[in-house]
Fold this sequence. Notes:
Layout: H1 7-21, H2 25-29, H3 38-48, E1 52-56, H4 64-77, E2 80-85, H5 88-102, E3 107-110, E4 115-116, E5 122-126, H6 127-136, E6 144-149, H7 162-170, E7 176-181, H8 187-198, E8 201-205, E9 213-219, E10 222-225, H9 245-256, E11 264-265, E12 268-269, H10 272-282, H11 290-299, E13 305-308, H12 312-324, H13 332-345, H14 351-356, H15 359-367, E14 370-373, H16 379-390, E15 396-399, E16 413-416, E17 420-422, E18 427-429, H17 432-439, E19 451-456, H18 463-471, H19 485-504, H20 508-537, H21 545-579, E20 585-589, E21 596-602, E22 625-628, E23 633-635, E24 647-650, H22 662-676, H23 695-706, H24 715-742, H25 745-759, E25 763-764, E26 767-768, H26 770-775, H27 783-792, H28 800-811, H29 829-850, H30 869-876, H31 881-888, H32 892-912, H33 920-931, H34 934-938
Parallel strand pairs: 1-7, 1-8, 2-5, 2-6, 3-5, 6-7, 9-19, 13-15, 13-16, 14-15, 16-19
Antiparallel strand pairs: 3-4, 9-10, 11-12, 17-18, 20-21, 20-24, 21-22, 22-23, 25-26
Amino acid sequence: MTEDLSPAERYAAARIRAVEDATALAPFRGMYDFDLDPFQIEACRALEAGKGVLVAAPTGSGKTIVGEFAVHLALEQGRKCFYTTPIKALSNQKYADLARRYGADKVGLLTGDNSVNADAPVVVMTTEVLRNMLYAGSQALLGLGYVVMDEVHYLSDRFRGAVWEEVIIHLPDSVTLVSLSATVSNAEEFGDWLDTVRGDTEVIVSEHRPVPLWQHVLAGRRMYDLFEESTDHGGRGGAKREVNPDLLRMARQENQRTYNPRDRRRGKMVREADRERERRSRSRVWTPSRAEVIARLDAEGLLPAITFIFSRAGCEAAVQQCLYAGLRLNSDEARSTVREIVEERTAAIPREDLHVLGYYEWLEGLERGIAAHHAGMLPTFKEVVEELFVRGLVKAVFATETLALGINMPARTVVLEKLVKWNGEQHADITPGEYTQLTGRAGRRGIDIEGHAVVLWQRAMDPGALAGLAGTRTYPLRSSFRPSYNMAVNLVQQFGRHRSRELLETSFAQFQADKSVVGISKQVQKNEEGIAGYREGMTCHLGDFEEYARLRRDLKDRETELAKQGAVQRRAAAADALEKLRAGDVIHVPTGKFAGLALVLDPGLPAGRANGHRGFEAYDGPRPLVLTAERQVKRLAAMDFPVPVETLDRMRIPKSFNAKSPQSRRDLASALRTKAGHIVPDRHRKPRAAAADDREIARLRTELRAHPCHGCDEREDHARWAERYHRLQRDTRQLERRIEGRTNTIARTFDRIYALLTELDYLRGDESTVHGKRLARLYGELDLLASECLRAGVWEGLSPAELAACASALVFEARQSDDAVAPKVPAGAAKTALGEMVRIWGRLDALEEDFKINQTEGVGQREPDLGFAWAAYQWASGRGLDEVLRDAEMPAGDFVRWCKQVIDVLGQIAAAAPGENSTVSRNARKAVDAVRRGVVAYSSVG
Length: 942
């Protein structure tokens, strides 16, 4: 190509190459055996120019290259770089990557429970660790030049997102920030905020997937493309992708088929498995089993695959189903390699614990190339699965959605079993953002030429809705930032109250709220112009029409109010009359489908309401069961009686009467007509309207007639303009209230927290008290409760195991609350201390209510959960893993994770507890050692 250039052009190109070779980017690019993408080069150049960067790109696109360039720059300049991640697993993985590239002596790791070479120039850490360092004014911050925040979109996380904003706001101005995010639809808005709080920040957004992604639906034996190939642009998507017409036709035909779930066979309900077999026999389309899916992918060369199942139990069951089906995805040589790796990685685990952990079943699956991956697994087991998958020795992984959050486990194919998942409160459809995040794992850069996302066919599936999920890129970043007690104390003791308030107003949460106010303000201005026009239109030459319109409105409101009162009174009278009915009463049903003569068979009063006694259950009025003169037995409702019902006569109901017998109904209905057919019910007279005698209405009508505008020929035209004026004015007031509610929301919350902490003597003016300094060292949801327990000496004299039980209540949250069963807790001093913790929480809860601190807004102290206290006590007391897990009824992975969190909070308690004459600090350190043993100690991931 250079031969075609003129000498001048060749000289210019050589000058450009010389300039590029002189940059730090040139040797960095040479460290990789592939060329960088344009967005990576653009971001790296901005970094070298001294700018901060926000890089938003799809999963697997290689945005971490930009973070690694920040590491390269720091080392070249003799400065430090902190690389932060949201989860410990990702920190461990990144540490291993950087240590391989730059050497273990230059890279450190800090994850709360792990500390490796912490003084190294490059340190990988969880975001919380950096936040704590900033508040503590750590010496490690000296010489810090770059901070990489990987997966920065985590700041949307409801529970932990605030930490990201705290770090971004409090980092020294001299630090260059590298923010790496998944593709978000409001990256420019986030970039604007970063520009405001961090200075010059370049926003680089890439929608390009380096490996094209093909979308499929697997139905029965056929794999359908989701989109027409001609509109899918080689799997890279496009603005006008059209759904595959073959898929639409199949879905229409299948969804029109009727499967009756109440088909009966031999007098019994058909089991689900029988119904599925029947569906398969009647149709060419069904939902393939998990083993069938893996076998199909294997046959088509689409492994390795990750199948996302939104249930831990489902993941484990899937592995067993594949094993029972006889699937073997590994050769004999691969099986031997797997066994060697597994035995090496698990050598530290005592043999007696292996059986408890389900080791042998897990190993059998691994040898066959099949595994589960979820938070309930032992962290060591998860790490082994990740390693084997990356090495191609595990080819089918069944995982929960937590695997999609940052762990580097790309696959050729991603399978979604269902498009619905449990969100903690209900079963909800997955969002476009979640779909993008999950399917983003498909396609390994440098290995696969294309990735595949496969959704399993389910009855009633709508291909159009699926195409909407696959084609939508709406994943907005929403701040979850809220001030906490610990944050307030740390801010005030560093900056004072006024400066703290100003800092909080620079948060992304307030930035977004203020930006939304701009749009509302524009609408208010527009409305005010309209109001002025309407005011002119209703002007009357005879007098003040606004005053006249207000009289008309007051009159209408009063008449409406009286009409509502009358309706309520009529319904109450009708309900009272119904409650007086007894079996054998002959009545006349005034309206409805069953109007006419009827005999009351049962008054329809629930148990506890008869004879005037009112029960506590939900009650919507009597539902009398009646026999009509036309022989129908029906249960009526209050709506059938708009007016009070009267008893016309009484009849004896034979004891032999059977409402299900046509003969019984015929005989009793005949007797009813004979007994009361001639009675004509009294016609219900409509009572005199309350408005006729209301003094307020009489006064308003008099004033209205006496007003000068009443005689205006154009009165009704003016009235129409006045009605528009009033409606627009009301809407504008609502908008102004919204503006008021959104302005300074974070600062107002801070003010309430500050007031409560002042009341409890944690803060005095711009300084923190001795209690405040203790609270500043306690992080977590129940920071104030932990501080109050230390202050009250609740944990004094407890043994290490008893203290571990109490600490567990500060961190544990049951996955599903079970209020019906009281959790088992240790007896003696621990039980007393736990009871005192709950009482202190009750006092704090009442105090928060007084100061209008609302837990639903993410601020305040939730009730301590005692559900892990017994397990923590047993484990810290030295009991065996088998016994502890059996009593706790929880998976080993959950047990280890909660133990890690107990260790973390015990460390905070040890640091914050008063030193003199206190056993708490000493016993907290002993408790840490007692909990950090066995499987908890082997696990490097939390």
